[in-house]
Amino acid sequence: MLAASLLASCGGTQDPAQKKGGGRGPSGPAQVGYVVVQPTSVPVTTELAGRVTAFQMSEVRPQVAGILQKRFFTEGSIVKAGQTLYQIDPSIYQAQAAQAQANLQSAQANANAARIRAQRYRPLAEMEAVSQQEYTDVAAQAQQANAAVAQNNAAVQTARINLRFTKVPAPITGRIGRSLVTEGALVTTNQADPLAVIQRLDPIFVDIQQSSAAMLALRKAMAKGGTIPGSASVRLVLEDGSDFGRTGTVQFSEVVVNQNTGTVTLRARFDNPEGLLLPGMFVRAQFAQAIDTEAFLVPQAGVSRDPKGAATVYIVGPGNRAVARTVVAERTQGAYWVVTQGLAPGDKVIVQGTANLRPDAEIRPVPASAPQKIQAPKGGGQAATQGGGGPRGSGGGAAGGNAGQSKSN
Fold first, then answer.
1. Which helix (H) or strand (E) holds 119?
2. What value does the mean pLDDT take over residues 239-250?
3. Taking Cα atoms as reference points, which of 83, 70, 77 lies closest to residue 181?
4. Is the pLDDT of residue 180 over 70?
5. Which residues 6+ apart lie within 8 Å of 236 measured at CB?
6. Which residues contact 180 (CB under 8 A, 6 or more apart)?
7. Cβ distance 180 to 195 under 8 Å?
């Protein structure tokens, strides 16, 4: 009975200390962390689908008809402009060139004879030994002979050109694909299928599709002010989600809207020395079309969504009370929401301690990420002083309390 009474007296001496110290549970207004927002310049970043297009493309076609005798290139290799790709049987065109040359020589001989005859008739006509009409006819024949020489000279040039076309050259420098014809095939000047296709891949184009509605909204925002045109720098995200690693520049924007898709085409140019981008490849283009000079960057932890999807933030209101405010936050930038409407310069947006926050709740605001000061409860501090514990901190108070209780026991 004596031991029980001593234990009861020990317990009775501890309860008032705990009650006086208030325990470790929360008391008073909830502490929240806030950031002060100010308007800043935020790029209006757009990500659009694009397709890679060759910088130059040439479909190699024959300009004369004949049997294909030989191919001079390796499929898939780089060819230079003017390099011979195919050889067409030249025998017919060699004969035509020789015939045209012979006709030219005959015309030159006739023209020489006609010129000499006209020279002889001229003094005779002056002496009236021959009639003027005869001299006029002879002079006209000389001129006709000269014209025949010019015609045959043009025929010779045409025959030589056709003979040169029997060697099919590369129109541009680039990478050539597979050969679509083989040796022994008959090729014609009007055939629909090309012999091969050459594409220049460095540099290379990316055609980006943007809806006309989005472009119209952007132009209206620029007209109202607060938004200025952005840079023409473009980054690419490849089909596997990786970054291309090189930036390109927007070359131009189409002046018409595609009637079938309702989009406008923007063309960007990229360096492609490694040949990583290939024509026909689908990519995602990221670029800043404009810069919003009146936007606010709010940490994502401070923005919540209601059931309808509207963005809401809590700000520190008068009397240190939480005020809910609906804002417009349509996109993110890194770890921030870009808020374009609903905030004013100097607003204190609550970004910490929002889990159980309610509108018009009393709060104790501190700057976000401020270190929290931990102090020992008042009751525990007195017990520590009486028991001879540490001078500060809850650990010292607890140790002093235990020492006092042990001494009492």
1. helix 91-126
2. 88
3. 70
4. yes
5. 50, 206, 243, 244, 246, 248, 270, 277, 283, 284, 285, 286
6. 193, 194, 195, 196
7. yes
The label of the residue with tokens 């040359």 reads 101
What is d(CA 375, CA 28) in angstroms, rounded to the nearest whole number?
Answer: 15
Q: Which two tokens stand for residue 348?
A: 């204190």
Which tokens go with 314? 């809590």
- List the structure tokens of 103: 């006709």
> Strand, helix or coil at 376?
coil
pLDDT in tens, 61-81: 999 999 999 999 999 999 999
- pLDDT digit string, tens, across residues 346-372: 999 999 888 888 888 888 888 887 655
Please report which confidence band the pLDDT of residue 231 belongs to, taking 50, 70 and 90 as the band edges. low
User: Chain-wide mean pLDDT for the chain?
Assistant: 80
pLDDT confidence of residue 289: 67
Buried b (16+ CB within 10 A) or exposed e, 364-383: ebeebeeeeeeebbebbbbb
| CA-closest candidate to residue 209, choices 259, 261, 263 | 263
> Which pLDDT does position 295 carry in this prediction?
86
Q: Which residues contact 210 (CB under 8 A, 6 or more apart)?
A: 46, 48, 263, 264, 266
Interior CA angle at 27 toward 23 and 30, to 5°?
Answer: 140
Instruction: Give pLDDT, residue 26.
Output: 53
DSSP track, 147-163 = HHHHHHHHHHHHHHHHH
State the pairing for strand pair 363-367/30-36. Answer: parallel
Omega of the bond leading into 203 within 30 degrees of 0 (cis): yes
Angle at Cα 83 formed by Cα 82 and Cα 88, nearest 5°?
100
Alpha-carbon torsion (147, 151, 152, 153), positive or negative = positive
pLDDT band at residue 307 under the 50/70/90 scheme: confident
Fill in the amino acid letter for 335. Answer: A
Sheet containing strand 66-71, strands side by side:
167-169, 84-88, 66-71, 186-187
Run of H or E including 139: helix 132-164
